[in-house]
Specification:
Length: 81
């Protein structure tokens, strides 16, 4: 959800027990979160982030992987085959 200009992940159902409260994203995290509305690879996310920020894909790929790993671990996203 976007509330007062901030992008938040609001847990529902069983996730409310796993996550204590809402998750607020940084500007970069919000961009990645919005991109994840559709299935994407880490490489695609990194490419889109690099283009949006005027960076080289190699500069952001590790950070994107970390974001995805944390989101997977917290159950915020699921991995598609």
């Amino acid at each position: 959800r976007e509330i007062a200009g901030e992008v938040l992940a609001v847990p529902v159902g069983a996730q409310t027990q796993k996550l204590n409260g809402m998750i607020t994203f940084s500007e970069t995290g919000a961009l990645l979160w919005k991109l994840l509305e559709e299935p994407r690879t880490v490489k695609d996310l990194a490419l889109r982030l690099a283009c949006a920020c005027g960076l080289n894909i190699r500069e952001v790929e590790a950070d994107v992987q970390e974001f995805v790993d944390k989101a997977l671990a917290r159950g915020l996203i699921v991995q598609c085959d």
